[in-house]
Amino acid sequence: MLAYLSMLMKKRRRYAPFSEWPMDKRQREIHVATHFIHSLEMTGGFQLVHPRLHDPDPPDVVADLRAGGSFAIEVTELVDGHLASTREHESGPPRFWLPGELSRAIDQILTRKDSRTFHGGPYEAALVCIFTGEPLVSLDTATKEVGGTSFGPYKHVTGAYLLFPYALTLGRCPLLELTVVS
User: Fold this and answer.
1) Is the pLDDT of residue 9 over 50?
2) Would you tell me how many other CB atoms lie within 10 Å of the CB of residue 129?
3) Amino acid 5: pLDDT
4) Percent helix, strand and coil across the chain, each rounded to 5?
5) Between the CA of residue 125 and those of 60, 69, 121, what are the distances in Å?
6) Nearest to 52 by CA among 79, 40, 70, 76
7) Which segments within the chain are labelled E, that is strand?
8) Can you say whether the dihedral through the CA atoms of 179, 135, 41, 72 is positive or negative?
9) Burial per residue of 143-177, b for 16 or more beta-carbon CB atoms within 10 angstroms, e otherwise
């Protein structure tokens, strides 16, 4: 068992980890979506239950609204892809995000997700959960950078959130709702 745990730790990505235990993409999507749904509920947001992977993708995950209906959830990561790949198993200085870069990166993610055709449905809403473990992108810095920014308009995406790594003090992952114009 110790040898297995040691192997897992060696495979873990060091730069901006969020949910980096060795798991495939689909396992990571449902794992992150479960944290997202828990954080939504704990902050007074949508009451979603029964999250499940959706096939065909997109959406990544579908969850039922307690009051009826279902939500499509797309899960994606905000990370400096170059640093994540070049520093796969070693550490180094984090990316410094210049003013405006975070907003542009979020808009690019949401535009890409909005361009896809969501299968199944109809859905009450199409949410995008953007998770990040970027060392210099905290809830406070993200709120200052994108707090007054409206993203969109989008055809399909009706809501978006930034999800941060689990915080023991909160008992959940911090969550920032983004303003999305449909």
Assistant:
1) no
2) 26
3) 44
4) 30, 25, 45
5) 14, 9, 10
6) 70
7) 48-53, 61-65, 70-77, 125-131, 150-151, 159-163, 175-180
8) positive
9) eebbeeeebbebebbbbbbbbbbeeeeeebbbbbe
Is there a contact between 158 and 126 (Cβ–Cβ < 8 Å)? yes
Residue with tokens 């959406």: 59
Q: What distance in Å separates the CA atoms of residue 12 and residue 94, rounded to the nearest whole number?
A: 17
Mean pLDDT of the chain: 85
- Name which residue leads in pLDDT, 57 or 131: 131
Which DSSP category does 100 fall into? T
Across 63-78, average pLDDT: 93
Q: What pLDDT does 106 receive?
A: 96
Distance CA 61, CA 72 (A): 6
